[in-house]
Amino acid sequence: MGKKEDPLIRYEGNPILTPEQMPFRCYSVFNAGAIRFKDEYLLLLRVEDYSRRTDFYVATSKDGINFSVRSEPINYPLTEIEKRYRKGHRFDMRITYLENTYYVCHALWLDPGCMIAMAKTEDFVNFEPLPYTSVPSNRNAVLFPEKINGLYARLERPQNIDGSGIMWVSYSPDLVYWGKSMPLDIPVTPWSGKKIGAGTVPIKTREGWLEIYHGVGGTCSTENYYLGVALLDLDDPSRVIAAPRECILAAEKEYECIGQVPNVVFTCGAIETDDGKLNIYYGGADTRICLAQTTIDTLIDYCLKR
Ligand code: BMA
């Protein structure tokens, strides 16, 4: 890409954070949740060490590009189910600010399967788990930043036995009981034939919820991850207003094609900048963190004109 009609522009200094730039030895840093916190840009980094143990570290920045990483991981105690099934890991945290609280949703892979877990934090140092997980197999949960028709809402991606799955929306009165689930009718394309799952926290716009999501499509040798964009109805996000058939980002650069998992671009968060841009943070090849920039209006136009 890099052509003039591209809806996203890669930051020319990509990647913005690599394992080599981390303040300690690690194997990979990728798929970061992203939010504004106390006038700074904050990323919640998924970091793997060389035993492939995952921890989450906070990185902050004044400009959204140059990040300093805290030397200690977040303090997020194990939940009851994790104590019972000690093997497993948490991954892909998305951060939502809702009712004066910061919530994270993430996938949790334990022996019984992959499920959705949630926690809340005030300071991004200590995290308090919400008590229950989903039943497996479910992942890629993203909490909407406000209630919809009086209920909490989240996007999620239940997974079928063959590994396929699409985005659903579920509702809850209390962040414990989830239901009223409906699939999103996003058109399946060659780049999203295998999976369609949420990426960023939906952004409320005059035209609907703007959602940047991932699609997985097979080639003869690999399963590649792409980013797409959709506009969802404000009152009923299962109703897709627009979802262009072209992806907005495909793995094309070396830092997206070579690494722990080749040909992967994967986002868990975007932040609006002071000068009206939208910074989309994404993992390149499950190894490093990259940045692509656009504006909300560009993405809305792109959705409505395709
Ligand atoms: C998905 C998730 C992501 C990862 C992607 C590509 O299933 O595990 O965290 O980036 O696969 O490996």
Structure notes:
With 306 residues, the chain is mainly β. It has one domain (9-305): Glycosyl hydrolase domain, family 43 (Tachylectin-2, Chain A), CATH 2.115.10.20. 6% of the residues lie in helices and 43% in strands. The radius of gyration is 18 Å and the shape is globular. Beta-D-mannopyranose is lined by residues 31, 91-92, 225, 261, 264, 266, 283, 286.
Number of domains: 1
Q: What is the 3D shape?
A: globular
Radius of gyration: 18 Å
| CATH secondary-structure class | Mainly Beta
Query: Per CATH, what is the topology?
Result: Tachylectin-2, Chain A
Contiguous runs where pLDDT drops below 50 for at least 5 residues: none
Q: Report the β-strand fraction as a percent range.
A: 35-45%
The major pleated sheet works out as:
5 strands, antiparallel
Give a count of the beta strands, DSSP E runs of length 2 or more.
21
- Cofactors, ions, other ligands: beta-D-mannopyranose
